[in-house]
Amino acid sequence: MAIPQRLERSQQVYRRMSNTIGGLPQYVVNATKEEQIATAMEWASKRNIRIVIKSTGHDFNGRATGAYSLSIWVHNFWNIEHNSDWRIPGSKDTANVLICGGGNNWGSAYIAANEANRSAVGAEDVTVGIGGQLTNGGHGTLSSYHGLSSDHLYQATVITTEGRRLVVNDEQNQDMFWAIRGAGGGVFGVVTELVIKSNPRPENAVSSALTFYARDSSRPMEDAAWAAFAEIVSQFPDLMDAGVTGTVDTMTGQMAKKYLPLPHAVAGPAVSAKIFAFNTTVESMRHKIRKLVNSIEDVSKGNLSILVTEPYSESFWSWGRPEFRSSNFAGSSRVFSGRLLGRAELSDLRREDLDKYLRQILVAEHPDGGNMLRFDLQAGSGPAKVPKRRWASENWYWRKAYVLAMVWGAHVNATEDPSNALNSAIDWYEENQEAVWRKWAPDAGAYLNAANGFSRSWKHDFYGNKYDKLLKIKEKYDPTESLWSHSGVGSEKWKYDLHSGLLCQAGKS
Ligand SMILES: Cc1cc2nc3c(=O)[nH]c(=O)nc-3n(C[C@H](O)[C@H](O)[C@H](O)COP(=O)(O)OP(=O)(O)OC[C@H]3O[C@@H](n4cnc5c(N)ncnc54)[C@H](O)[C@@H]3O)c2cc1C
Question: Which pTM does this prediction carry?
């Protein structure tokens, strides 16, 4: 098959630049048609060239790029259509859906849903792409109510590395349909279209916020702040069962001073909770916050500064209308660690153990600089109540978890040799945080899109006992194993040189 002209041109350009492009792809296809993707993938897979797929490039572990690769950019697959009467494959029923091109971000989907008086379960940050978020599970502001983004997929169109175009759903290519609902960004094929279930738009959103920290740097104040932090964490499951969602950020040291902001660094944790609930009243939220504040005051014996934002109600759209700000994360070099945590890890353990784990996980490489731990209150009853027949390759712990926890802590020196900088951060996380999760949450998993892709237990953390089945599906649809992503299914067969980005088959030099 002839190589498309556009691909030939980019080959020539990038070959000339190849000494300077570092970990970036060698060839880029700015695809506008499925046939171009099919032709380019077939061309690359016949030549032993690694293929990577890029939508927005948001991925924290750099899985949308790769040295010496052919990059398929799906950005132009930007179509969105609403259909209130779409027939569900394998069923006589119809559904209210959004039909989205594989290069859309969630903000565009929210706008399309709102125009039809509906809502969609996508990412909290509207610049996140549907492609990478949904194929890896996906949580957001509505997931604790309705389930994961991947639970809402009825059908997708996938182009394989052999150049085949597959429609995947409950009737056709079921194995691929299962694989791309949770374990699948960038490893099974290019998703060019997704049919996503929409939900009724909530009537309103009630918001509130709560911040607390030690009043001075004495030891009793610091202990009081840790006790209050453990108290609020232990209440997450009950709060969420009562309809509360949101994000709770906890910072220590200079980090707290900078981000809250505070006039001086505080002793112990400074907690900032932004919480919401839908289809509810201000009175109901006020009652919940009052109860929370009372319990925090009880355990901390009045030693904390506590600030509460009076709850207020607004329409769902006024609350959630997308603001396409550029992301603060862009261009930064970071590694971080994460886990999905359920009642067992939040509420049902001894309070002194919870207190101990929270202190341990918030350790920082540079203690004065401090650290941050984020809890997204975005699992809970939504993912748990999804009927089992709709579960797929997503991490098994989503069905038990209430929160997604993410923690930072080590500095990655962006000007140093990449392999040295990364290896030093990876070792730090392994020793200081992965080790804590393994004690605190030995049965829990991690969310592929928001955890440490370098963790030594990545296979278990991300895929659990679904891994072998996933590998068989990968080998069936990508027999040349051309699609490769870091900690993706099948990636263990390749040795990845952190310095150059070169891949060579494990066991061969
Ligand atoms: C600022 C920020 C906020 C975030 N907020 C949330 C959040 O609220 N909820 C949440 O769940 N996650 C969130 N994330 C994590 C996000 O889900 C991941 O970064 C995800 O990988 C982004 O997918 P993408 O398609 O935008 O990015 P990309 O980097 O382009 O792609 C990510 C992965 O998916 C693959 N991929 C992308 N598109 C396709 C496609 N069409 N077909 C096949 N493979 C594809 C890529 O190959 C790559 O492996 C956030 C990330 C950032 C940076």
Answer: 0.95
